[in-house]
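Following up on my earlier message about iron/sulfur cluster. Here are the inputs again, as you asked, copied directly from the submission form:
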Amino acid sequence: MTERSARTRSRKLLAALEVAYPDAHCELVHKDVFQLLVATVLSAQSTDVVVNQVTPALFRRWPSPKAMAAASAEDIESTIARLGMYRQKARHIKGLSQVLLEQYQGQVPSSLEELVKLPGVGRKTANVVLGVAFGSPEGVVVDTHVQRLSQRLGFSKETQPAGIEQDLMTLFGREKWDIISHTLIFHGRRCCTARSPACGACPVQQLCPSAFRAEHVGRKKGSAASKKK
Ligand code: SF4
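Thanks, got it. Here's what our run produced:
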């Protein structure tokens, strides 16, 4: 397949998925950009479902950078203790709240350069905030679903998030960099799951290069299916 036809097929695939999931969006519950930033920091190595179970109590007690910065680390820890790495995450959200208060008048900055200087905020978290809250991502957020789906759909042959992100940024225009992640995550959670992709019921089955043979494509090394290989 030529580069041009691969690009055409990729764009058709994304367009079909956007039709299938017109309401694809960030599933971390938040009321403002500060809460989005905190929820995204908390979501590292944790599912959105568990984060959404923890954040209502967290934001009820400490809804703003000012309140969070003044909280004790121990109190934050006990509120988010269901999450992996909760001690480190508690330190990060208290620390980033202090920086927002001291350097940004309690506002969340809107540039990648400033966001990645906040405690616990890497490029991925920054791009979630830039895409969802500001509509101006500087890259594509590649989580485990985006990683797996990009490989299965033929968007990328890379195996690491950084390489996959570069391929997605090359294949798709900047205006798609935010929605592509949400759309692939929706499809990955609802249909093209890691272990049992539902190819028979898939809305892009006709276009997908991995249809009916996807179990071993895009799985992480060490997963059950990979070990069976
Ligand atoms: S056809 Fe199968 S492998 Fe391809 S996107 Fe659909 S569920 Fe995933």
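One observation from looking it over: Residues 7 and 225 are 29 Å apart (CA to CA). Hope that helps, and feel free to reply on this thread.
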